[in-house]
TrEMBL record:
Positions of transmembrane segments: none
The encoding gene: yghA_2
Lineage: Bacteria, Bacillati, Actinomycetota, Actinomycetes, Propionibacteriales
Gene3D superfamilies assigned: NAD(P)-binding Rossmann-like Domain
A GO molecular-function descriptor: oxidoreductase activity, acting on CH-OH group of donors
Record EC number: 1.-.-.-
Pfam family, one: adh_short_C2
Entry's family note: Belongs to the short-chain dehydrogenases/reductases (SDR) family.
Name the record gives this protein: Uncharacterized oxidoreductase yghA
Region (Disordered): 1-52
Bias-annotated ranges (Basic and acidic residues): 43-52
């Protein structure tokens, strides 16, 4: 049984020290990186996230759910009672299998759907597969993203420019469009955007532009489908420790100080994002529509 003191320790925590202020060693992985090889490992809530039935019976598709923020959201959704389809790149199979095991251990259905969201046809295939395997679909989390740091615009190739827009914003249009025919009133869409939408880093021009587009898409689509009882919102993370950052997402020399310039003085852990996605997906946020929830350690945002 949990004592009063233990309960207080869980419910009253200093956000500065709740997670360690990490100073990751310089490291590099080929894109897409794996959580399996991240040093120090990221906290996706495996040993901490406790559900309270807030998504009981829901059927969710989460893209990029093999690692990082998407994995933390998938773990939280399952522990809140949802069955979850996770989409990821074939190269991420090891990470995906681990997340699927955690979902299954929560007593929920896990469906794994590898494939490349830069391909338009796969964006509808992933939705149809998720809906048929889960017996329907009522929650979508558009979370997959590509971030490659390039110092000078002259060095940004057409190939990268196209790929960043395909994965980060065009796929969100295509997946949402395919999902709509499955989404009954009460369903939700949550898009992953970024603080980069308002405070672009000079080395992330293509990435940051897509994130601004995601905020705009979220607010527009939210108004379009609200009368149908479908809510669309976004979450804008600040610096979160995930494989995205070590697979050319940041210059490697920036990694040791990653996230230390936030008011909390530390990078965020993926599990600290999960409650925002749970809130925006659960019925308790019924009057929250077209909102971007900033989870960024205190950096001012509009
Ligand atoms: P991550 O690398 O763990 O997750 C990104 C995922 O996107 C990958 O796991 C991969 O499965 C998926 N993906 C990338 N390209 C794909 C493709 N072509 N086809 C299919 N899937 C593809 O990193 P993360 O940081 O958890 O990123 C999740 C989301 O959060 C992204 O949209 C990212 O832009 C956003 N975000 C992250 C941070 C951060 O600091 N980590 C900050 C702001 C926003
Ligand atoms: Mg991954």
């Amino acid at each position: 049984m949990t004592s009063m003191t233990e309960t207080t320790q869980l419910t009253f925590q200093n956000p500065v020290t709740r997670y360690p202020a990490i100073s990751p060693p310089q490291q590099s992985q080929p894109e897409p990186g794996l959580d399996l090889h991240l040093s120090p490992p990221a906290d996706r809530g495996e040993n901490s996230y406790r559900g309270t039935g807030r998504l009981e019976g829901r059927r969710a598709l989460i893209t990029g759910a093999d690692s990082g923020i998407g994995a933390a959201v998938a773990i939280a959704f399952a522990r809140e009672g949802a069955d979850v389809a996770i989409s990821y790149l074939p190269a991420e199979e090891e990470d995906a299998v681990r997340v699927a095991e955690i979902i299954a251990a929560a007593g929920r259905r896990a469906v794994t759907i590898p494939g490349d969201l830069a391909k338009a046809v796969f964006c509808s295939e992933v939705v149809e597969k998720a809906a048929s395997e889960l017996g329907g679909l009522d929650a979508l989390v558009n979370n997959a993203g590509k971030q490659i740091s390039v110092d000078r615009l002259e060095d940004l190739t057409d190939e990268q420019l196209d790929a960043t827009f395909e994965v980060n914003i065009l796929a969100q249009f295509r997946i949402a469009r395919a999902a709509l025919r499955h989404l009954a009133p009460g369903s939700t869409i949550v898009n992953s955007t970024s603080i980069q939408a308002y405070r672009p880093s000079p080395h992330l021009l293509d990435y940051a532009s897509t994130k601004a587009a995601i905020n705009n898409f979220t607010k527009g689509l939210a108004q379009q489908v609200a009368p149908r009882g479908i809510r669309v919102n976004a979450v804008a993370p600040g610096p979160i420790w995930t494989p995205l950052q070590v697979s050319d997402g940041q210059p490697t020399e920036a990694l040791p100080s990653f996230g230390q310039n936030t008011p909390l003085g530390r990078a965020g852990q993926p599990t600290e994002l999960a409650p925002a996605y749970v809130f925006l997906t659960s019925a308790e946020s019924s009057y929250v529509v077209g909102e971007t929830l900033n989870v960024n350690g205190g950096s001012p945002s509009p």
